[in-house]
Amino acid sequence: MTVADFDPSTLLAALPARRLGRPLVYLPSCASTNDEVAARALAGAEEGLLVVAGVQTAGRGRRGRVWHSPAGDNLTFSMLLRPALPARQATPITLVAGAALATSLAGLGFSPRLKWPNDVLLETADGPRKVAGILTEMASEGDQVRHVVLGVGINVNSEGFPDELAARATSLCLVRGRHVDRGEVVAAFVRAFEPIYEHFVAQGPSAALAEWNRYAVLGQPCSVEHGGVRIEGIAEYVDMSGALLIRTVTGEAISVHAGEVNWLSSRST
């Protein structure tokens, strides 16, 4: 990844009149863009700060997993948000970001699907494969949000993956069959995210979650490990709290607020 790919003046020119994505900071290397933004948030940075890394040396996903991202191939970036909301109302932000990321990729000619709570998939000849993930980390003061760090990792130009990821990961380049401009991908995300985020803060999650459900992998058998209990059923939709509603074989509707979905269909990941 070169500095020229993310020159602030070039990228900001693609974001006219945008509040988010400003200022834009490019770091050739850092441990974690989420950690960089969190530190700047504590130092008083304003909402909208966007940090893009050439390479992360300690990038992470959900549940402490390592995010695989070779230097020069992909995108890892984080944005600072300061929604004026009670902490309990801010939990759908991960899904808001997922809806925006799916919308932006669709606008670039891809056909994304969303897997609850934070994965973006693209169809390949071998079935759906993960192309992006989202990690949000919230800090609160009392019952109010102090800040949220929104982290995004996208496999843009990777042409291969380690053995442990090869069966479930893909990239924009592999799907399209040619190199994809990473600056264009960042700009598309910010353009899609800002209006849906502002609507969420002002009027609640209904529009964002309707958009998320539009792209979601739903209606399929799945299992979720939740509170030490394995829940099996059909994933029906995501409700206004951001919970995944699963309908069991007995007809019971269970709202799952945390956990990891494992699809029981052979065509889903």
Written overview of the protein:
It contains seven helices and twelve strands. The protein is an alpha+beta fold and 269 residues long. The protein has two domains: 3-215, Bira Bifunctional Protein, Domain 2 (BirA Bifunctional Protein, domain 2), CATH 3.30.930; 221-263, SH3 type barrels (Roll). The strands form two sheets. Strands 1-2-3-7-6-5-4 form a seven-stranded mixed beta sheet. A five-stranded antiparallel beta sheet has the order 11-10-9-8-12. Strand 5 (119-124) and strand 6 form a beta hairpin. Helix 3 (93-107) crosses helix 7. The model has no long low-confidence stretch (mean pLDDT 88).
Question: Top keywords for this entry?
Answer:
269 residues, alpha+beta, BirA Bifunctional Protein, domain 2, SH3 type barrels, 5-stranded antiparallel sheet, 7 helices, 12 strands
H/I helix tally = 7
Portion in beta strands? 25-35%
CATH level 1 class label of the largest domain: Alpha Beta
Number of domains: 2
Helix content: 25-40%
Please render the helix and strand layout as text.
Blueprint: H1 8-13, E1 24-27, H2 33-42, E2 50-53, E3 75-81, H3 93-107, E4 112-115, E5 119-124, E6 127-141, E7 144-154, H4 163-166, H5 172-176, H6 182-203, H7 206-215, E8 221-226, E9 229-238, E10 244-247, E11 253-256, E12 261-263
Parallel strand pairs: 1-2
Antiparallel strand pairs: 2-3, 3-7, 4-5, 5-6, 6-7, 8-9, 8-12, 9-10, 10-11
Helix pairs in contact: 3-6, 3-7
